[in-house]
Each structure stands twice: as C-alpha cells, then as structure tokens.
Amino acid sequence: MSEARIIDGKAFAAKLREDVAAEVARLKAEHGLTPGLAVVLVGEDPASQVYVRSKGEQTLAAGMHSETHRLPAETSQAELLSLVERLNDDPAIHGVLVQFPVPDHMSQAAIVAAISPDKDVDGLTVTNAGRLASGLPALTSCTPAGCMVLLKDVVGDLSGKRAVVIGRSNLMGKPMAQLLLQADCTVTIAHSRSKDLPGICREADILVAAVGRPEMVKGDWIKPGAVVIDVGITRFPSRDPVAAAAGKTRLVGDVAFDEAKAVAGAITPVPGGVGPMTIAMLLANTVSAAKRLNGVAE
Ligand code: NAP
C-alpha cells in the first residue's frame, strides 16, 4: 500500500490568513470597520507566551487591531474579570480571548462565563456551545473549526463517514464531534473510560485524536485508508542537547506518525498540521464577530 498523503496545515493556514486579510481590507474600505482582537495572558507560562505572541503578530499581519494584555501571575480573579468586562464593552474589540491555563487561584469556568458570547472567539461560552449543538450560527472553537477545513478539503463530502473523536473536552473533543455530526458523519466520542479504544478507532474513516498523550494511537489502530487528524501536542526537550539546554523544545502528537502514515490515506503531521490552522481560524472568527456586532452581512 502507498504511504499516506501528508496534510499540509501550514499551506492551508497561509491561504486562510490571506482570505482573512482580503476580507479585513474590504471591511475597512467599504464599512470603515477594523476587526479587533484582545488576548489576555495571566502569568509566565512559556508555551502560552509563544502562542500569545504569535496571535498578536498574525492579527496585525492580517490588518486587524491587536491588543495583548499581560497580567502578573498574582493578579486577582476580580481584576481579571474587570478587564474582561472592559473589553466586552470596548467597541474597537470584537474578539476577547483569555489564554488558558490560568493560575490555580482562578476559575476557568468563571472567566469563560464573563466573556460576552458575541466576542467569544474561542467558542467556549455555554451560549456558543449550545448554539453549535442546536445547529444555530455560533462562534466555534478554533481548532475543531480548523480541522473541519482540512477534512472537507481532503475527504470532500463527509456524509455517512464513520468518525471517531478521541477526547471530550469543551475546547476540542465536544465541538469537533458536533461539527462532524453537522456534516452528517456517524460520530463516536471516545475518552479515558472507553473500552477497547483500538477497536473503536479501527472502525473510523475519519480519526481525530485530541488527547495529549504522545504517540498513543498506533499504526494498527487505524483502518487502512482512513484520514487521521492529530490534534495532540506534547512538548519534550529538543533532541539536540545544546538546544535542549537552551530551553528549545520539540512537539509530539497523539499519533505514532511513522507507523500511522504506512496505513492511513491521509494524515496531519505534528508540527505543521492542525496547529497552524488554530490561529488562522481565530482571525476568521474575529472577523465574523466584527461583522455580526456591526450588522454587516456574512
Ligand atoms: P484535555 O482537556 O486534557 O482533554 C483530553 C481528553 O483526552 C479528555 O477527554 C480525556 O478523557 C481524554 N483522554 C485522556 N487520556 C486518555 C486515554 N488514555 N484514552 C482515551 N482518551 C483519553 O485536552 P484538550 O484541551 O482537549 O487538548 C487535547 C490535546 O490537543 C492536547 O495535547 C492539547 O495540547 C492539544 N491541542 C492542540 C491545539 C492545536 O492548536 N493544535 C489546540 C487545542 C488543544 P476524560 O474526559 O475521560 O478525562
């Protein structure tokens, strides 16, 4: 059997960012509207700092307004919530994102609940999750939305496909399953209590792994020809000891890539697969939010 097609998430994301930039230019010219994204980072988590920097840079590169609010780890929850309130009320801001994880003294649920559903570009509020589950227009979590862009391109019509999602988080697994269901897949959600996970995975035409356990999904879990989307990211020190000593890391996905690519029909690599789609979808969500908030037709 021939090897799997490697899905180039970087190229898809670059195209999506170009489309977003063109739409931003049109909104500025025709409506005097500049979409704005505010990202809030509490504390010094090194991975979060990288993500937040990149979100700010890519927002500006798309011609949008970008604000990054960096707060010290000892910030109180009340202070954070009052910043979120201000951003909810700021007409220059159309997307509000608090980078998780937050320090242990804060409640993630309380923070999500404070974000205006109209500006919830991560799709985490109960309102947006409920709208998605009800088949209504919603701001949808960026990573699953990015996975759908890749799947629709690679698979085409998803109708009737057997899809298995490993992971049931509000950020990833649940919205992913909802989007696949909307596309008329037959969807199974597997999780840490699922029995015979390899057997469940072997039924999948589309397998999405969103767990955070490096190389958990083995080659013999995959149905020959299946499309495999690897969302997982675990950071390890770089293999090069000098680079590792300098704090450089490497990313490992949930799928044992070399084994899997010998069986799958198509597969996303880590890095360079799903990851780049997430920020591109964040920009797209912010543009959608700006249009809805300003009464501009989608
Ligand atoms: P999460 O909240 O920790 O959820 C992980 C899920 O995996 C849970 O539902 C858990 O099941 C399930 N799980 C854990 N161990 C398992 C096992 N042995 N067998 C089957 N299922 C198991 O994580 P998340 O936020 O959804 O993220 C998942 C992964 O995706 C992480 O590696 C994260 O870094 C990555 N991620 C990447 C991007 C990106 O841009 N590429 C974006 C978001 C997340 P239970 O519910 O039963 O505990």
Describe the overall structure.
With 298 residues, the chain is α/β, with parallel strands linked by helices. It folds into two domains: 31-118, Rossmann fold; 142-277, Rossmann fold (3-Layer(aba) Sandwich). It contains eleven helices and eleven strands. It has helices at residues 9-31, 46-61, 77-89, 108-114, 126-133, 142-155, 173-182, 197-202, 241-245, 257-261, 275-293, and strands at 5-6, 36-42, 65-71, 95-98, 162-166, 186-190, 206-209, 227-230, 234-237, 249-252, 266-267. Strands 1-11-8-7-5-6 form a six-stranded parallel sheet. Strands 3-2-4 form a three-stranded parallel sheet, sandwiched between helices. Helix 1 packs parallel to helix 11 (275-293), helix 2 (46-61) packs across helix 11 and helix 6 runs parallel beside helix 7. It is globular and about 55 Å long. The N and C termini lie far apart (44 Å). The model has no long low-confidence stretch (mean pLDDT 97). The structure holds NADP nicotinamide-adenine-dinucleotide phosphate.
In brief, what are we looking at here?
The protein has helices at 9-31, 46-61, 77-89, 108-114, 126-133, 142-155, 173-182, 197-202, 241-245, 257-261, 275-293, and strands at 5-6, 36-42, 65-71, 95-98, 162-166, 186-190, 206-209, 227-230, 234-237, 249-252, 266-267. It has 298 residues and is an alpha/beta fold.
The CATH class of the largest domain: Alpha Beta
Ligands in the model, by name, code or SMILES, are: NADP nicotinamide-adenine-dinucleotide phosphate
Q: How many domains, in number, for the residues?
A: 2
Distance between the termini: 44 Å
Question: Count of helical segments?
Answer: 11
Q: SSE order, as H and E?
A: EHEHEHEHHHEHEHEEEHEHEH
Classify the beta-strand content into a percent band.
15-25%
Mean pLDDT: 97
Rg computed from alpha carbons, rounded to a whole number of angstroms: 19 Å
What is the structural class?
A: alpha/beta
Question: Low-confidence parts lasting 5 or more residues at pLDDT below 50?
Answer: none
> In which range does the helix fraction lie?
40-55%
Number of strands: 11
